[in-house]
Every structure is written in C-alpha cells, then in structure tokens.
Design goal:
By secondary structure, the protein is mainly alpha-helical. It has one helix at residues 3-21. The protein is elongated.
Length: 67
C-alpha cells in the first residue's frame, strides 16, 4: 500500500468511528400556535456566524437585523 492509501484508510476508519458514536438526532416537537392568533413569521436569514435575522418575514429593508 502506498502512503496515500494508508491515509485514506485511516481517514475512512476515523469517519466510521465518529459516525457510530455520534448521537442520533430526534425529531423536535413542533410548538402549536393558538387557534385565534397566527404566529409572527421571522425572516430567518442566517449570517456566517450562525445568527438569525429577527425582522419580519419578507421585510423590505435591505439589511438584516441579527440577534
């Protein structure tokens, strides 16, 4: 085996062990909104740091407001 074959095998083994011990994600329960009041929709745009925009959905402003 060449050096690259050894590196590839090690990388695949590391990936397999990491996925085997990673916790399985469960489906999060969806919160129910009151029947008479629709929930306020947010823009939801994410920036590179992972923050989300808190402006209303479909806002006309060119910039996003992150929290």
């Amino acid at each position: 085996m060449s050096k690259m074959d050894n590196l590839r095998a090690m990388r695949e083994a590391r990936y397999a062990s990491a996925t085997a011990r990673a916790p399985k994600q469960k489906a999060a329960p969806v919160p129910r909104e009151p029947a008479g009041q629709p929930a306020e929709q947010l823009c939801g745009h994410r920036n590179m740091a992972g923050r989300t925009c808190t402006r209303e959905h479909g806002h006309a402003a060119k910039s996003h407001r992150y929290s």
